[in-house]
Design brief:
This protein is 21% helix and 27% strand. It contains three helices and seven strands, in the order αββαββββαβ. The strands form two sheets. A five-stranded mixed β-sheet has the order 1-2-5-4-3. A two-stranded parallel ribbon has the order 6-7.
Length: 168
């Protein structure tokens, strides 16, 4: 997989001068961190490049690292797959709580529609241009985003459970 890391790294550095912030091989998959303002361009490039041909958006998920610097507290991870070559890559981008706006990918991959609605529902990401960005799994009346790490995992009022039961 380090060969794939080098191939994609070279192409991204050549095409997006300064847009590739970091890269590494995590377990068996190359991971690339790119600037937020280039995320859609990078993903479209990875899809449309004849050699890379990452034509399938496997996963899109939100990230919340409250311990990160303020401008990197939230992130999005996109996992792409080139099925004929069995190549997979992860592309990550980070942003601040104050600016969780990212362009929609629904015009690039139809599967992004549901995934973006889910990440809006659970984290509050605003996918600009999404045709129907509203809650998909939680109640419409919810005024918070439950996957953010600012909420306790357990109901603190319950007395029949405590952290010792869960090895904490």
């Amino acid at each position: 997989m380090s060969e794939l890391l080098d191939i994609v790294k070279d192409k991204l550095q050549q095409r997006f001068d300064g847009g590739l912030l970091a890269y590494e091989l995590q377990y068996d998959i190359p991971v690339f961190i790119v600037k937020k303002d280039l995320i859609k361009e990078v993903l479209v490039f990875l899809k449309e490049d004849k050699e890379l041909n990452f034509h399938f958006l496997t996963t899109l998920c939100g990230l919340h690292y409250p311990e990160n610097l303020q401008d990197k507290e939230f992130g999005l991870m996109y996992q792409l797959h080139n099925m004929p070559k069995n190549w997979r890559v992860r592309i990550k981008t980070f942003m601040s709580r104050e600016d969780m706006n990212v362009p929609t990918l629904t015009d690039v991959w139809k599967t992004a529609n549901w995934m973006e609605r889910q990440e809006y529902d659970f984290f509050g990401f605003n996918f600009i241009g999404h045709p129907n960005l509203r809650r998909i799994l939680n109640m419409d009346e919810m005024n918070y985003f439950p996957m953010r790490k600012e909420y306790p995992l357990e109901d603190l009022q319950r007395e029949d459970k405590n952290d010792k039961m869960f090895g904490r």
